[in-house]
Specification:
5 strands, 5-stranded parallel sheet, alpha/beta, Rossmann fold, binds magnesium ion, about 20% strand
Length: about 120
């Protein structure tokens, strides 16, 4: 059986690669990578991921704007979007939820078991 598709949207290459590696070791996931919101929207339109992990601060199009744009599509309105928030930015979480993100996790991710549980809760 083909694994669920997870789209990782993150402008930092190291973080993107770590997430790719971690997600692949979590389960049978098909991981796609985008480096900004615009790329993410194009990829999501074509490939219809089952879940998105979305950095908020990115060039070209940030995660807030990209999430709002996803929510405006018929296929993206209920798509699980987990925001990557910056620990130092206290209002990030609130802003993520008000932009329509389903959940969030603070960066740097210290405990990948937490991310795994969040993903499994949405993809179950
Ligand atoms: Mg960033």
């Amino acid at each position: 059986m083909q694994g669920k598709k997870i789209l990782v949207v993150e402008d930092n290459e190291d973080t993107r690669e770590i997430l790719l590696y971690r997600l692949q070791s979590m389960g049978d996931y098909q991981v796609m990578l985008a480096s900004n919101g615009r790329e993410a929207l194009e990829m999501a339109t074509k490939s219809r991921p089952d879940l998105v992990i979305m950095d908020l601060k990115m060039p070209v199009m940030d995660g807030w704007e990209a999430t709002k744009a996803l929510r405006d599509t018929p296929w993206g309105k209920d798509l699980p979007v987990i925001a990557l928030t910056a620990q130092a930015m206290e209002r990030d979480e609130e802003k993520a939820l008000s932009a329509g993100c389903s959940d969030y996790i603070a960066k740097p991710i210290m405990d990948y078991a937490v991310l795994k549980r969040k993903i499994e809760r949405f993809l179950r």
